[in-house]
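Title: Prediction job returns without error message
Component: structure pipeline
Severity: low
Priority: P3
Assignee: unassigned

Description:
Job completed but the reporter wants confirmation the result is attached to the right record. Sequence as submitted:
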Amino acid sequence: MADEPNPLGEYVRARRELVTPEQAGIPVFGVRRVPGLRREEVAMLAGISADYYLRLEQGRDRNPSVQVLEAIARVLRLDDTATAHLLRLGADGPRRRRARPQRRRETVPPSITKLLTTLPLPAMVEGRYFDVLAANPLATALSPRFTAGANRLRSLFLDPAEQALHPHWENSGGGIVAAFREAVGTDTDDPRFIELVGELSLASPLFSRLWARHDVLACEAAPKYLDHPQVGGLQLNRERLSIDGAPGQTLVIYHPDPGTDAADKLALLASAIQRSATAEARPTGPTPRQHRAVRPPAGSSSDWPPASAAPRPAPPP
């Protein structure tokens, strides 16, 4: 049992280490050797025995009641989103060892693909693991990483060009990691999830630190400031809309406030895309010349055209 996954224990332990005694109203005397609260302090404040709380963290008791989890959530100062995540982990119960599932293919509904082409704003579809599944040209003009096949986490933590687009990317990194954890929930045995978290944990120390915090944040609308290499700073609003019939998929739209310089800059990007599309549509080879009747120049003699230009007689048989 010790080698089985223990997401509930990992979560409460990580969150316990982030709550200071002062926040919990516990007086501090001398030097404390552990970050955050001690196990017995959480148990005391939650009204449960220290032994029972220890069994929860170690994964030896995996069927806590909702009342116990809600009491622990209050001690750990969890908001509504984080509390809901804790309850999901507690309700998930023991996991039996099973064959690893096949990677799930996420397919964008055709109607959403058509919608992307008609939207006059940067828009893309993200999967549940923040893979970009589809994007319109204006989204790709906003960032070349906003294109099908890219992954938003990998771009932000591993691509310097994407980091330059987000001036405060290290601060916003915590938000996207917390949103990713909330989107995944308890479904952590998918090969795509395992591959992505493993790659980023090894390649990015910042991602590894943020992932270890177990922060959870709902994916909601938010303002975004982007430093575009061509048009400069853009203050935009980002909307995230769930797609009916496609669980885990989200339509992400960036839009400016009307009448702002960001609206003008987006219009410039859209105009550049239109000019590029028009140029590509033009034929690149030489166009056939129109055949016209050749008229003699004014004042010429009746022997026009000159002998040098007249057709040669056919050779004798």
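Comment from assignee: result matches the submitted record. Residues 54 and 179 are 28 Å apart (CA to CA).
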